[in-house]
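Q: what sequence does this backbone want?
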C-alpha cells in the first residue's frame, strides 16, 4: 500500500502512467516487487517470481550480488557522491580496470548514468574527433531514447512520433557489408553498431561482418562505435561481444550490467586518438552524477565478480544445454516457435578474455 492506502498498481495508473499500469495488469504482473535476490523477485504477498527479464539486461550478476552490495554499502558510508573538487579514487580505479580488459587500445573512459547517455556522448565525441558529421547506424538497431540515440536507432515504432530527428543520420541494413561499403564515404564521422542486436530480437550478424565494417571504416577514415550496453560484461560468452571477431573499435559503450545490478552506471571507452580533442577541452562534455563514487564502487566489484567467477566462460558453457533444449522445443513445436536465436553459435572460438595492454 502507498501513502493514502492505494495499491502500487492504482498509484501507477493515477500518477505514473496509466498505459503502463494497464499493460502490466494485462500480463498478470500487477503485484509490487518488494525484494530480490539472485534470479528471484518477491512480491508483497510473498510470491516468488523467476526473473527471466533481468531488468532489460541489467542483472547478469543476479539481484543483490553480496560482494557488489558490500562494496556499495562501504562506499555509501564513506562518500557516495563526488565533491568535484578532488579526484575520486573509485572513478580512477574503475577506469584503469576497464582499460585492462577492453579491446585494443581503448584506455580512456567517460562515466555516465545510462546506456543512452553513453550513446549521446560517443556521438558527440566522434564528431569532435573526426571533424565530420554524418553517422551511419543499422536498421532494427536500438541505442536508446534520448534524441541523439534515437536518431541512431533503427526502430520506426520509437522514431516516428518524434520526427524529424537529428539530420545526417543514415540507416543501412544490419549484417550487410556491401550496403555499409556503399553508404560509407568521407563525410562519415562514425558507424554505430550493436555487435548483436538486442532489443531488435537477438539478431546475430554473419561471422566476419564486424571485421569487414572495421576494415571499411579504417579505409574511409570513419570511426567505429560499438554499443555493448547489452552485450558487454560477459553476457555473450566473452567479456565483450566484439572479441568474437577480434574487432577493436574506436569507442566501446557500456551500461546495464556494468553497475553490477546494484547501481546505474554507463561508460564510454575510447582510444587515446579519439580522446585527444576532448582532452584539450575536458569540460565540453560532462555529467554531474556520472562517475560518482557509489556507482564506480559497484562497477569495480562487478569486474571482480566477472573475473573471479568467470562469468563469460560460464555463460558460454551453461548456455549450450539451454540452446540445445530450446532448439528441440522449436523442432517439436514448429507452429508455436518460429526460430531459436542465440548470441552464440558453435563456430565461436573462446579466445581472449582478459589481457593487459
Ligand atoms: C544496445 C543498447 N544501447 C543503449 C540502450 C539504452 O540504455 P538505457 O536504457 O540505459 O538508456 C539499450 C537499452 O536497452 C541497449 O540495449
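A:
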Amino acid at each position: 500500500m502507498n501513502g493514502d492506502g492505494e495499491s502500487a498498481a492504482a498509484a501507477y495508473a493515477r500518477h505514473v502512467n496509466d498505459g503502463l499500469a494497464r499493460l502490466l495488469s494485462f500480463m498478470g504482473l500487477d503485484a509490487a516487487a518488494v525484494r530480490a535476490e539472485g534470479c528471484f523477485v518477491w512480491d508483497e504477498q510473498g510470491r516468488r517470481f523467476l526473473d527471466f527479464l533481468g531488468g532489460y539486461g541489467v542483472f547478469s550478476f543476479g539481484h543483490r550480488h553480496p560482494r557488489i552490495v558490500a562494496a556499495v554499502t562501504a562506499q555509501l558510508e564513506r562518500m557516495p557522491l563526488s565533491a568535484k573538487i578532488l579526484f575520486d579514487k573509485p572513478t580512477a580505479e574503475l577506469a584503469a580496470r576497464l582499460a585492462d580488459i577492453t579491446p585494443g587500445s581503448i584506455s580512456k573512459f567517460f562515466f555516465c548514468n545510462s546506456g543512452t547517455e553513453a550513446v549521446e556522448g560517443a556521438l558527440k565525441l566522434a564528431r569532435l574527433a573526426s571533424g565530420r558529421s554524418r553517422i551511419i547506424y543499422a536498421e532494427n538497431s536500438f541505442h536508446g531514447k534520448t534524441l541523439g540515440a534515437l536518431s541512431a536507432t533503427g526502430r520506426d515504432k520509437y522514431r516516428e512520433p518524434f520526427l524529424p530527428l537529428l539530420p545526417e543520420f543514415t540507416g543501412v541494413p544490419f549484417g550487410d557489408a556491401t550496403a555499409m561499403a556503399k553508404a560509407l564515404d568521407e563525410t562519415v564521422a562514425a558507424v554505430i553498431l550493436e555487435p548483436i542486436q538486442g532489443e531488435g530480437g537477438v539478431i546475430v550478424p554473419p561471422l566476419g561482418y564486424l571485421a569487414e565494417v572495421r576494415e571499411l571504416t579504417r579505409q574511409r577514415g570513419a570511426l567505429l562505435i560499438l554499443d555493448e550496453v547489452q552485450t558487454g560484461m560477459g553476457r555473450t560468452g566473452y567479456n565483450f561481444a566484439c572479441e568474437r571477431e577480434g574487432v577493436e573499435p574506436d569507442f566501446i559503450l557500456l551500461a546495464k550490467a556494468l553497475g553490477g545490478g546494484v547501481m546505474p552506471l554507463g561508460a564510454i571507452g575510447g582510444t587515446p586518438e579519439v580522446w585527444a580533442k576532448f582532452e584539450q577541452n575536458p569540460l565540453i562534455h560532462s555529467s554531474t552524477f556520472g562517475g560518482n563514487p557509489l556507482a564506480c564502487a559497484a562497477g569495480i566489484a562487478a569486474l571482480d565478480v566477472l573475473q573471479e567467477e568467470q562469468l563469460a566462460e560460464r555463460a558460454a558453457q551453461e548456455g549450450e544445454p539451454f540452446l540445445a533444449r530450446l532448439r528441440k522445443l522449436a523442432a517439436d513445436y514448429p507452429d508455436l516457435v518460429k526460430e531459436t536465436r542465440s548470441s552464440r553459435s558453435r563456430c565461436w572460438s573462446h579466445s581472449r578474455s582478459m589481457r593487459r595492454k
